[in-house]
């Protein structure tokens, strides 16, 4: 299989794991503050070897995280041009109205740049300790630092809890916080297929076509 003109090899020595990262665990191989890492969780589950996370998940967030020893695969699926979907459930303060949800769908400004269009839906309304709260599903195709939290801040509904529920075609399934499972070669190939055809960038998709050059009439 080729992506960006390069052939990806799926050797038997390459391994891929899907971890449900709990909140309070760092998405790095080591931590200078001696906090628990995702590698520590792999070790506890009996997984040995040199692995590293594919992308990142905030310390305060939970949910799915891929880990592998395949650097080429990691580079392909995390490259911004491929816009691999990631789905989140955000528990937010207050209940966003349709106008606010539509702002998230169309993009909000973070650090001077507008976010790409996102899939956004209100799942349910809950009673929280500080008043009503809501569960909002947000599907994004970019991975800017703390993006979902900042998006929700931009519409005035801070995140209370954030869970990543899907990476491309990989879903939580029956995984619980701290649990890990091996990802099959078929699942990995399916994930890579989603990146094989590069989508148009937002700017290209929205750029208007140049107007045709007007021709002066020579009729008398």
**Beta-strand level of the residues, as a percent range?**
25-35%
The end-to-end distance, rounded to whole angstroms, is: 62 Å
Q: How many strands appear in the DSSP assignment? A: 13
Counted up, domains total 2
CATH overall fold name of the largest domain: Alpha-Beta Plaits
- Supply the CATH class of the largest domain: Alpha Beta
General form: globular
The CATH superfamily of the largest domain is: Pseudouridine synthase I, catalytic domain, N-terminal subdomain
Counted by DSSP, the helix tally is 6
Oligomer: single chain
CATH architecture title of the largest domain: 2-Layer Sandwich
Radius of gyration: 21 Å
Mean pLDDT: 86
Order of helices and strands: EEEHEEHEHEEEEHEEEHH
Spans of at least 5 consecutive residues with low confidence:
200-220
Considering the chains and any ligands shown, give keywords for the structure.
220 residues, alpha+beta, Alpha-Beta Plaits, 2 domains, two-stranded antiparallel sheet, 22% helix, 30% strand
Care to give the gist of this entry?
The chain has helices at 38-44, 71-78, 98-106, 147-154, 185-196, 202-206, and strands spanning 2-3, 6-7, 16-21, 52-54, 62-68, 86-93, 109-110, 113-114, 119-128, 131-140, 159-167, 170-171, 180-182. With 220 residues, it is an alpha+beta fold. It folds into two domains: 1-82 and 169-197, Alpha-Beta Plaits; 85-167, Alpha-Beta Plaits, CATH 3.30.70.
